[in-house]
Amino acid sequence: MKLFGTGLRRICAVVAAPTAAEMSKLVRMALRHASTVELRLDWLDSDAERARFLRWLGKGKRRPGNATFLATCRRREGGGKFVGGVDRELYWLTQAREAGCQWCDLEVETLRKLPGQSVREYPVPPRVLLSIHDFERTPDLPRSMNPPAHGAVDAVKIAAEARTIRDSVRLLRLARTSKNFVAVPMGEAGLPARILALREGSALAYAPVAAATAPGQVSLDDMIHLYRAHVLTRRTHVFGVIGDPISHSLSPLLHNTGYVARRMDAVFLPFLVRNLADFLSAVPEFGIRGFSVTLPHKQSILKHLAECEPLAADIGAVNTVVVRGDGSLYGCNTDYLGVLRALEKKLLIKGSRALIVGAGGAARAAAFALSRAGATVAICARREKAAKELARAIGGEVLPRRALRTESFDAILNATPLGMHPYVGISPLVPGELRCRIVMDLIYRPQRTQLLKLAAQKGIATVSGVEMFLAQAFAQWKVWTHTRPPEVPMRQAVLAALRSEAHSRAH
């Protein structure tokens, strides 16, 4: 029997706020989407606010009859905000039972201080979840967890910081072999495993309604509607994007929107990858079928491939990987197509002269795309050796930065990270260096980078990186699924997110 039920009931909405009024509002919001709710009483500013909130909860007006409430009043010793001692924590958990909470979360630091290390002598909510938190690392883990061996509690939760993807895999393995266990990988590296935890056997997956209460959390709305964590199974096709940084990527929004539109049993996850070997060793564990590659791995992934399409090998950079049935990796490059599709709408590429700023993986794709389409290409990059190597590969030239104030081009393309988070507001070039008819930025977030703003102020036509982003992603979809992507909803989702972000930044 499932402790918290099945399906959507296993997604626990986390409610945390400083005042009773805000907590009440968040509970109402949570119950629109979920029926299991964690109440972080320790987040409330004072005992008066805690009492006020629990009085409201006890009245139970308009509360669904199937709602399950889990009360938490975590002390600072256990990683929470509550400044009182064990006796006061237990008092508030007792009050939570009076208000109708069926479950409480008791940290192991509290249990150790109780007589006989058992909470059963206290009138706390009848079901007890014992929680163990490690905000520094993923500790050594046993082969399985047996809840009755831990103070006769009903379930055990381990929430641990995943410094690597392998750390999160270790926690998921424990979920597979344990009953009545909750696995919570914390931190950005643990985010994919957090989404897949229910699939692996975790009794719950946590998602905040508003403010995040732990590192690497996914919002309740995204957990349910974007990632659909409650319906994922071992048969679900898993795809993803790897990079460092990765939190800025809209690839999960783009592809998951497509899966929902097509009613496909698939999910797309963001992987923070600092070490390629760490990620690649976890590919079989997650059951990954394919992944997108972004900074800084587009060139270093090559040595891990069993096979690479000739064009990608010539470019020397891969942005799309297929995991074959035998586990071997096949690489290709769709950035190439993305550049062409985005630029050819505004420029006759054949016979044009283009400048590419940068010499990394994205720059190489752009240089090969334009050169093979008949453009004369110049490279300007901080790394002189890489610039010379790229220019030689495409039969182009290298230009020093000082030459940009006198040379003219049909198009200038930025293929550096300057302008992207965390370098928003920075332009790789100054206005005096923009001597061209078109400026294209391969960065798509923000949609209007500082470089594009400078170009527009000079009356130069601009091409946003979002056009390249969409084109290369649509090509990836075909590589992975062998079907046509639902381009309209995917495009609309990305543009809506970018507009919302721009509006928030403006205000």
Task: Describe what this molecule looks like in 3D.
The protein contains 16 helices and 20 strands. With 507 residues, it is an alpha/beta fold. Among the domains are: 227 residues, Aldolase class I (TIM Barrel, Alpha-Beta Barrel), CATH 3.20.20.70; 124 residues, Rossmann fold, CATH 3.40.50.720. The chain has an 8-stranded parallel β-sheet with strand order 7-6-5-4-3-2-1-8. It has a 6-stranded mixed β-sheet with strand order 10-9-11-13-14-12, sandwiched between helices. The model has no long low-confidence stretch (mean pLDDT 94).
Brief rundown of the structure:
By secondary structure, this protein is an alpha/beta fold. It is built from 16 helices and 20 strands.
β-strand percent reads 15-25%
CATH fold category name of one domain: TIM Barrel
What portion of residues is helical?
25-40%
Give the class from helix and strand content and strand pairing. alpha/beta
For the termini, the CA-CA separation is 49 Å
The assigned CATH architecture of one domain is Alpha-Beta Barrel
Low-confidence stretches: none
Question: How do the strands line up in the largest sheet?
Answer: 7-6-5-4-3-2-1-8
Spell out the blueprint of helices and strands:
Blueprint: E1 11-15, H1 20-30, E2 36-40, H2 47-59, E3 68-72, H3 86-98, E4 103-107, H4 108-111, E5 127-134, E6 155-161, H5 165-177, E7 181-186, H6 191-200, E8 205-208, H7 220-226, E9 237-243, H8 251-262, E10 266-272, H9 276-286, E11 288-293, E12 307-308, H10 310-315, E13 320-323, E14 329-332, H11 335-343, E15 353-357, H12 361-372, E16 376-380, H13 384-394, E17 397-398, E18 409-414, E19 436-441, H14 450-457, E20 461-463, H15 465-481, H16 487-506
Parallel strand pairs: 1-2, 1-8, 2-3, 3-4, 4-5, 5-6, 6-7, 9-10, 9-11, 12-14, 15-16, 15-18, 16-17, 18-19, 19-20
Antiparallel strand pairs: 11-13, 13-14
Helix pairs in contact: 1-2, 2-3, 5-6, 8-16, 11-12, 11-15, 12-13
